[in-house]
Amino acid sequence: MSAPTLTPTRPEPSAPGAALTQRRSRPGEVAFRLAMQSCLVIAFGVLASLLAWVLIKGWNRLDSRLWTEMPTGLTSRLDGAGVQSALVGTLWIISLVAVICLPIGILSAIYLEEYADNTRWYNRLLELNIQNLAGVPSIIFGILGLGIIARALGLGFTVITAAIVLSLLVLPVVIIATREAIRAVPQSIRQASYALGATKWQTVSRQVLPSAVPGIATGSILALSRAIGEAAPLIVLGAVTFITFNPDGLDSAYTALPIQIYTFITRPQAEFAELAAGAIVLLLAIVLVMNSIAIFVRNRFEKRW
């Protein structure tokens, strides 16, 4: 009778998450995770506190008078005052910014990402300048607009001047966001389109751009949200702090909600503070509507593609 053969047994592998659990249980990583969570809680707490203060402060002014009545400088008439001229001026400006900035920014991003030869020195210089312009303070764009657009070109302190300057301010943001969205489209989509005989422009317009729409929409709305809240360039460009009429053209005088809010805050009377809080809520509502549109567009195209 032959002796039984002994076969070596392999140790059973540990559970996949065992090593990960041990690694996560290190004191340094636990402390880092707690620090990050604390920062998140503090940030949301501060934001919630500010929103609550603004809502409580301006609750009495959150009615139709806020957007149907003109502002006033008399304390005795503050009960019926509103910010209609600033609201209309803001809508004028942000609409023109969208018309000027978005087509130029998206087309520039398409050229740089799909057509430009990175070995050319002027393309590399263009990309470097775009990245640098994204970090330039907004007041610099205001000074540039004052010297060149308002005075040298003779456009004056008008709605179109404000729109052009704010378009230049957020243009690098639109270009960078659009390039990232186009770059995220898989190369297999392009290769499949070329394999079916499509041209370069057919591939970009019918395959790449529709796939990149969610990222483009998000970046564009973020850029417009920054533009709608800018006050420093408009102060330099001569935005009127108090007007009782709405802009009626590109060459009209104007004011905007950030300028009007700043004017109200500087007044010592409590009624002006309430009116400023109501205007802040109105401005936040406009930004939320813009972001909701971006979310709707992004979800719609994500489901389609």
Automatic annotation (TrEMBL):
Pfam families: BPD_transp_1 (PF00528). The keyword Translocase does not apply. GO terms for biological process: phosphate ion transmembrane transport. GO terms for cellular component: plasma membrane. It is a multi-pass membrane protein. Residues 1-20 are annotated as: Disordered. Residues 87-294 form the ABC transmembrane type-1 domain. The chain crosses the membrane at residues 30-56, 91-112, 133-153, 159-178, 227-245, 275-297. SUPFAM superfamilies: MetI-like (SSF161098). The keyword Membrane applies. Keywords: Cell membrane, Membrane, Transmembrane, Transmembrane helix, Transport. Belongs to the binding-protein-dependent transport system permease family. CysTW subfamily. Part of the binding-protein-dependent transport system for phosphate; probably responsible for the translocation of the substrate across the membrane. This is Phosphate transport system permease protein PstA. It comes from Micromonospora endolithica. The lineage of its organism: Bacteria, Bacillati, Actinomycetota, Actinomycetes, Micromonosporales. The gene is pstA.
